[in-house]
């Protein structure tokens, strides 16, 4: 290589090296960004962060700061009707506006680069040493390796995908992210924006946990659980699980968004999910009775949801195993198709054998006393062993089946709704009262004789009994319950078909 080329290469590398060091050293300094008053760390219209952002989602504008940790996910979000601009200069997001074609075709314009000194210097160097092809090649390689949208390099990031017609549904939005994103849910900024576009319509539930509202987002019903401040750990846990674990399943309540806002100096915690107008299984059983086939369908769907939770998946769609720890009819929702879905992951524990961890969280909340397994009540449960938590879920699953089966008509007989152990403990039983019944007296909920005269219900009754063994390892697994119920379902379909043929 000739001397001038070598010199150029050295100069180019030195320049880029110094630029990189300069950019890195900036990482430690915080920028002043424009933001909206009252949100997050925003004070008097400014916040401090590592990246300033301007976002435009469905006409909703926002400016603020991102920390280093979350900028990547946010600044690279690709989303219908999202215009996202991230920059690294003091107050650089103050006057950003969406491009004029935000409602037109997607812009083919690449992101603008805002480091003129780099380009001027490089142009000069390239002019002086036109013979220096080596330097140029090295430079181009360097640029390609670091990408055009690299925020670390002080470049502005502009990602724009613009609409083509009607308002999207949240299903469309998920599809977009499930195929192009990490697959675990919407980016935090999109969740926040969606949550803030929800109108609360009607309170559909209230309890120690907080409130559940029906809300509307873009004309669609959504459920909004507003956590009481006492139960913030449940919000954190559920938000963490839905955002880190691939949990899309027909029998697990569908997550839409989580949001934390501050209102009159108190924190509001929202969890936005699919809305099921039939409400919880507990509510549904108060006013509905079932045919044995519907009972089977419901029980099978709960078992399917629990199998999905309990199972670790180790493929590309990987998912840790999850134990629920507060399974009960109030935490199960009834869908229009007669299936159920499991809700409330606020107390869940996570386990991965392949990654060798057990994460029990740090929620001071405990499960519902009425549904507690004997080993929880007598405190002999092995809290360091994941299997133990699954076994307590199975105890509770048997109790849920019992609640459903009481409301199932056999030989024209159906019982009124009653919670498990209704005849053995008072309303809102104490820990000691439950312990006496479940551990000392080793009582089980009684099963009506009528159940034994129907093939589906006698099989479900047998499953219940096998969920209630005093010894946790003796209980059925969720997978075994699901398999037995699936077989029952196929067999009953088969006998109905046969009956039709015979007629
Ligand atoms: N009650 C609690 N969660 C609900 C939901 N997602 N839909 C309807 N009612 C509910």
UniProtKB/TrEMBL annotation:
Keywords: ATP-binding, Glycoprotein, Kinase, Magnesium, Manganese, Membrane, Metal-binding, Nucleotide-binding, Receptor, Serine/threonine-protein kinase, Signal, Transferase, Transmembrane, Transmembrane helix
Annotated positions binding ATP: 225
Domain of life according to the entry: Eukaryota
Gene Ontology annotations of biological process type: angiogenesis; artery morphogenesis; blood vessel diameter maintenance; blood vessel endothelial cell migration; determination of ventral identity; heart development; response to fluid shear stress; transforming growth factor beta receptor signaling pathway
Family statement drawn from the similarity comment of this UniProt entry: Belongs to the protein kinase superfamily. TKL Ser/Thr protein kinase family. TGFB receptor subfamily.
Protein name: receptor protein serine/threonine kinase
Entry EC no(s): 2.7.11.30
Naturally occurring in which organism (per UniProt): Sander lucioperca
Transmembrane annotation, as ranges: 118-140
Necessary cofactors: Mn(2+); Mg(2+)
Signal peptide coordinates: 1-23
């Amino acid at each position: 290589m000739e001397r001038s080329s070598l010199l150029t290469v050295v100069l180019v590398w030195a320049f880029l090296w110094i630029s990189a060091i300069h950019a890195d050293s900036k990482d430690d300094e915080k920028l002043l960004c424009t933001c909206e008053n009252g949100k997050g760390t925003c004070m008097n219209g400014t916040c401090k962060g590592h990246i300033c952002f301007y976002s435009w989602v469905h006409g909703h504008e926002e400016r603020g700061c991102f920390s280093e940790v979350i900028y990547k996910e946010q600044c690279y979000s690709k989303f219908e009707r999202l215009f996202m601009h991230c920059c690294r200069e003091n107050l650089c997001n103050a006057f950003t506006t969406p491009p004029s074609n935000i409602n037109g075709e997607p812009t083919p314009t690449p992101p603008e680069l805002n480091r003129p000194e780099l380009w001027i210097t490089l142009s000069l160097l390239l002019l002086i040493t036109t013979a220096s092809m080596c330097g140029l090649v090295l430079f181009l390689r360097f640029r390609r390796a670091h990408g055009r949208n690299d925020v670390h390099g002080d470049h502005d990031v502009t990602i724009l995908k613009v609409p083509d017609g009607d308002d999207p549904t949240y299903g469309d939005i998920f599809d977009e992210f499930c195929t192009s994103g990490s697959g675990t849910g919407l980016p935090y900024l999109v969740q926040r924006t969606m949550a803030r576009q929800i109108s609360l319509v009607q309170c559909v539930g209230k309890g120690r946990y907080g409130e559940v509202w029906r809300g509307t987002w873009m004309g669609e019903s959504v459920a909004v659980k507003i956590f009481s401040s006492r139960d913030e750990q449940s919000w954190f846990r559920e938000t963490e699980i839905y955002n880190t674990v691939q949990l899309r399943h027909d029998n697990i309540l569908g997550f839409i968004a989580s949001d934390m806002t501050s209102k009159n100096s108190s924190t509001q915690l929202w969890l936005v999910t699919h809305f099921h107008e039939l409400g919880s299984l507990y509510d549904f059983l108060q006013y509905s009775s079932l045919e044995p086939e519907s009972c089977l369908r419901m029980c099978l769907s709960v078992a399917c949801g629990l199998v999905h939770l309990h199972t670790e998946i180790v493929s590309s769609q990987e998912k840790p195993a999850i134990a629920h720890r507060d399974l009960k009819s109030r935490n199960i929702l009834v869908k229009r198709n007669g299936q159920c879905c499991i809700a409330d992951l606020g107390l869940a524990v996570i386990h991965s054998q392949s990654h060798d961890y057990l994460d029990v969280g740090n929620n001071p909340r405990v499960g519902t006393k009425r549904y507690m397994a004997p080993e929880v009540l007598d405190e002999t449960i092995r809290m360091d062993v994941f299997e133990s938590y699954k076994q307590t879920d199975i105890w509770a699953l048997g109790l849920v089946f019992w609640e459903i089966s009481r409301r199932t008509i056999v030989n024209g007989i159906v019982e009124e709704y009653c919670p498990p152990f209704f005849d053995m403990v008072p309303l809102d039983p104490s820990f000691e009262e439950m312990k006496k019944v479940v551990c000392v007296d080793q009582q089980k909920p009684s099963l009506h004789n009528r159940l034994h005269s129907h093939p589906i219900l006698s099989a479900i009754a047998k499953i219940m009994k096998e969920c209630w063994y005093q010894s946790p390892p003796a209980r059925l697994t969720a997978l075994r319950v699901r398999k037995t119920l699936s077989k029952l379902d196929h067999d009953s379909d088969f006998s109905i078909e046969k009956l039709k043929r015979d007629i």
